[in-house]
């Protein structure tokens, strides 16, 4: 929390830590939870962080581990959790293990996470700031600490940002702001982290929402609803970033209707292929 303490001078409303910020079961570390609670209560900020988590089955005979995001509020001991739904095959889960339980016994060097099922949306109250953007700089016209608004936000974890249909569901469920927390360290110095960061730009444009992207090794930054990086921390650079980001509650056509255009194109292609094959057989006969 040392780095987070340094950014408090800029009076943030929300802190976002990356996917591997707490590489242990935070739920069981009472001392760590107490320190986080003390820090948030004194600074009056919200916190979203990545952490592994677990759940027991109803009869408590089985345990299910998850790649999770925890959302903390000041003055509250409890927290909310989101469990990653799109797990990386091999490194995070063994495919088909829910259908064939014996596959859990295979040790291929990865984790044994189970996918979540809910498109969770968290809520926080922040001061209302009215102004406009001049390029990537926000100019405040009016800001009253007594006026506050409710912001609905969701957490996208790493690999999930690749899938537009997953991200869309969060916005469809009411999220006005998205966070992408990720561990891009395993990419190394390849094109991987740069390509992964560009996916976030597409997700912002598709749904016209701002995105806070926080990666443990970069690339981190703030993306506005039209896909511009307002601020950015390059790869392998340790940096605290803060920004005033725009909120948009209007849903795009894609958010409301989904991938129907692509599905129709696929259907037309299939019909065209069958038509060509059928016509070819008629011609040959």
Descriptive key words:
single chain; 285 residues; alpha/beta; Nitrilase/N-carbamoyl-D-aminoacid amidohydrolase; 6-stranded mixed sheet; 4-stranded mixed sheet; 10 strands; 29% strand
**Strand composition percent:** 25-35%
Oligomer: single chain
Number of domains: 2
Rg (C-alpha, Å) = 22 Å
N/C terminus separation? 76 Å
Name of the CATH superfamily of the largest domain: Carbon-nitrogen hydrolase
| Annotated CATH topology of the largest domain | Nitrilase/N-carbamoyl-D-aminoacid amidohydrolase
| Fraction of residues in H or I helices | 25-40%
User: What about the largest sheet?
Assistant: 6 strands, mixed
Structural write-up:
There is one protein chain. The protein has about 280 residues and is α/β, with parallel strands linked by helices. The chain is about 25% helix and about 30% strand. The protein has 6 helices and 10 strands, in the order H-E-H-E-E-E-E-E-H-E-H-E-E-E-H-H. A hairpin with a 6-residue loop joins strand 3 (about 65-70) and strand 4. It is globular, with a radius of gyration of 22 Å. The model has no long low-confidence stretch (mean pLDDT about 90).
